Amino acid sequence: MTVAELLAKHGINLPSTAPGRHYTTCPHCSAGRASKEHRAAKVLGITIEADGKVHWGCNHCSWTGPEKGAGKNGNGRDGAQHAATYDYADADGALLFQKVRNAPGREPRFWLRRPDGKGGWVNGTKGVNTGILYHAPGVVRAIAEGRVVTVVEGEKDANSVRALGIIATCNAHGASELGKRPKWTRAHSEQLRGADVIVFNDNDGAGYAHADATCSLSLGVARRVRRLDLAKHWPDMPKGADVSDWLAAGHTGEELAALIEAAPDYVPPEGAKKQASPASGGGTDDTDAELERLAKLSVPDYERARKEAADRLGFRASILDRLVVAERTRLGLCEDDAKQGRAISFPEPEPWPSPVDGAALLDGIAAALGRHVIMAEHARHAAALWVVHTYLLDGFLISPRLAVRSPVKRCGKTTLLDALDRVVLKPLPTANVSAAALFRVVEAYRPTLLIDEADTFVGEADELRGVLNSGHRKGGQVLRTVGDDHEPRAFATYSAVAIGIIGNLPDTLGDRSITVDLKRKLPSEAAESFRVDRVGHLEVLARKTARWAADNAEAVARADPAMLDSLFNREADNWRPLFAIAEAAGGEWPQRVREAATKAAAGSEAASLVELLLGDIQDIFTKRKENRVERSDEIPSADLVGALVAIEGHPWAELGKSRKPLTQNGLARRLKPLGIGPGNVGPEDNRIRGYLLEQLKEAFSRYLGSEGAFKPPSRPERDEISTSDAFQSAQPSPGCAVGKSEKPNNDGLLCGCAGEKGESRQSEHAEGGNGLAPGLSQRTIAELAEDYTETTYRLNQEGSDIDSATLDTDLRRRLAEMVLPEFVGVEFERVMAEVFRV
Fold this sequence. Notes:
It contains 27 helices and 23 strands. The protein is α/β, with parallel strands linked by helices. It has a six-stranded mixed β-sheet with strand order 13-20-14-19-16-15. The chain has a four-stranded antiparallel β-sheet with strand order 1-2-3-4, with no helix packed on it. A hairpin with a 5-residue loop joins strand 7 (about 110-115) and strand 8. Helix 13 crosses helix 19 and helix 25 crosses helix 27 (about 825-835). The longest helix has 23 residues, at about 535-560.
């Protein structure tokens, strides 16, 4: 294949194929660049050797060729989806890890991987020092030979400069966002000890700040530190442009060498603290010191010093204002800024010092959340995965809202939000928020919003719902005009949000949510009170989550987990981040997230009326018993709806905007979130749809309790062994005395009647001539089994020894309060059979 044919095969057009160095536009990236000038820039360099060998590289997208097959450089088949790869080796040339640039449009833009020792790769850099400089062997040689070492912002620039015969390096993690801690550290500068350093900056605020940090941290370490700002030599240099763009614009290596030779020594900003030597163990970044000085000035003094300080630091004045405000917040100096309210701050957890096991971490979060509220196991699992996702938003295209839903008040939604406040990243709890405040706080800080009492304001706030909806997807934003000249500005809305609500979220917001349903605690259920002075275990979990997220961010972002066939469209989008986290964590979590998604509750009607509905239904059953209606423990759907609609002063006769009465379907929808649905009732020869009292007892107990909202129903003689004053038999037979039993049996069945002195004459536990099922109800057996399993789960998560004998003793004690002693063993075996079945 001739040179011309090879180039044509790869879409490279040259007017001549004579040996030498040629430049043209890049067929991979030039056509898609933003401006006409960028599209015309000759960013692709092609070298044609005298013997016919050809190689090329793009200064913009780092495309190189020709391809040589699969290999560690990522140009072969195993890296075809990558735009470029950059090898990081130690000073002796041993490969440590590789940084990968994804193709345009793929997320994340960059990620790291390490060799697996078998010619392949392992995602992530666990156990690898990622603080090594790029081209470290060349840096070591240049220092030893007394040659200049240039420091640029990224690998693409380092390769561009190195191609000119000038050693160039950078750090693996690039520049920080404005106002955040520099990613260039003292450890990076220590690798430049004794070097003659030239520091380049990209032409934007982050680039200037990164170069400042590099220079100031290298003072006293490098033999000489100089700064080269190409914008001073390229008047039309675009914002964000770098040395690669400078070369692509037609500048030569000779020009660059001349600028390096003439580059001035770096001088720290006047008034900033001098950089201490590494041996002293002290000192701060000069830029940080100057920002701290400015933050401590009064408003008039800062206004006078503002312009000069901005020029000295190389920032625009508006950027300096933002940095100073952030520094004042960090120092706690915003309390007396003459504004109403308090400044917002977000202390981020210090990452755990050692690697963290993901499965164990999720186990711990799920157990911790479950200690304070009553919710199903799958809901705990979903909440735990959602917590971890708040640390990894940059790696996801979707951030599902967490709907913390309760059917009525006092189910613990505020308590759960309080617990989440201690484990999520940058929590911002609030019981009310406007649309304007929401998008501004997200633009400034991107916190994890924990919105409580949503049922009091979200439903009527159309604009607020629109902002919350847009923040569901990465890149979500709203447009507003700002300033006296009404300049249009975009405000980001992408952020993690948890919303506590009684009832359902509005449809469009609920469609973007993963729901965890809470239940009101029964007297028999255990839940610890949440105390803010006893949250040390949650803070430890937050630190461990920060560490695990930092170590696994690339792996999670690249994950493409297999979704359930039952999940599609937006529902699948909502669950995909949680599936990715579960897959990376391993253990039982891939299966748990699938179970959680399968069991996630569907939407329901407004739950603010649930308590009233249950109370009315209970009163209807009570009246049926009082009136000795045949089959009083069941009721056809039509009769129940008719009785509800007939209640004066209650809303069942006029519901919603249409003011239409409740229907049988409407009743079924309102009861469905409570696990209650219509079944067959009536005589065997005439079965119709309706409800059984037994179906509703748990809901009555859980949501109505003993608040006196209803009169206690009279009980059939053989329904309960207890005959307290409030529940005396409505149908005493001549041979049965009404009295108090020595032992309550809860929902156990009475197989006899009380004697004259109150002693029990129960004669059998098994099925008798009355045709009733024996012993405790299956629901009670299931509840006892669930309590047994939950206790075992909690002890396991807390790291406590699980003493089966103690658990069995506690279970037998509870059973002894429910049935006669001779039947404890029988019921114990029934419970244990249910435990092992589950």
